[in-house]
Design goal:
The protein folds into two domains: about 70 residues, no CATH class; about 80 residues, no CATH class. About 80% of the residues lie in helices and about 0% in strands. α1 runs antiparallel to α2. The N and C termini lie far apart (about 40 Å).
């Protein structure tokens, strides 16, 4: 959340998208350097836990963790639902949204913060699981043939949960007793889905 706060501050100073992307990458490198510094002085058990967390896994999550996630995600998702109408207006373009009385700068900042908080809450306990946030909303959108936020928000939530459960089941049972990283399985299914969607979008654009 501190990192995304820096990115939001940089977006007020930098006007070019490419420069903003580079600044985000640099912040990522700074975070990596801090992590490496902490690991250097960490105990061996903590290093093993960090390695397991970095691969993405639901096996280490306790009911206490679930209780914390439930509170944070419930409150944050409720705020996202309340923003359904502004999101619909924003999908029509910034000019249309401004004509409808939407404060574009405030809206974008809130949307980025809420989505970052949802991602950060899950990642804190389950680790970084790749391609779920990219692939699942696009798959759900193509299944329902709509981009209405009132439908897409709950569909993405449930679709992401079902996708993670399916991939976690494969990760645990495919090469049992050896357990795969869940990110390995999500990448196998998610990466081809994103490629197909990008190619289809490009074909439709042409």
């Amino acid at each position: 959340m501190i990192s995304i706060g820096f990115v939001l501050l940089m977006s007020k100073v930098l006007s070019h998208m490419a420069t903003l992307i580079v600044s985000g990458v640099m912040i990522g490198y700074i975070c990596t350097a801090i992590t490496d510094f902490v690991v250097t002085f960490a105990d061996d058990s903590d290093i093993v836990n960090l390695h397991n967390w970095s691969q993405g896994s639901f096996s280490g999550i306790s009911w206490e963790n679930v209780a914390v996630m439930t509170v944070v995600i419930f409150l944050t998702s409720a705020c996202v639902f309340l923003m359904s109408k502004p999101i619909s207006a924003y999908q029509m373009g910034e000019a249309y949204a401004q004509n409808m009385g939407l404060n574009i700068k405030l809206f974008r900042a809130l949307l980025v913060l809420l989505s970052s908080l949802l991602s950060a809450c899950v990642t804190a306990f389950a680790g970084p699981i790749s391609f779920v946030g990219i692939a699942v909303p696009q798959i759900v959108k193509n299944l329902f043939h709509t981009s209405r936020p009132l439908l897409m928000i709950p569909a993405s939530f449930l679709g992401g949960a079902a996708f993670c459960m399916f991939c976690d089941l494969l990760a645990r049972t495919l090469f049992s007793p050896t357990e795969l990283s869940i990110s390995t399985v999500t990448a196998v299914f998610g990466a081809p889905a994103v490629i197909v969607i990008l190619l289809r979008t490009r074909k439709e654009g042409m």
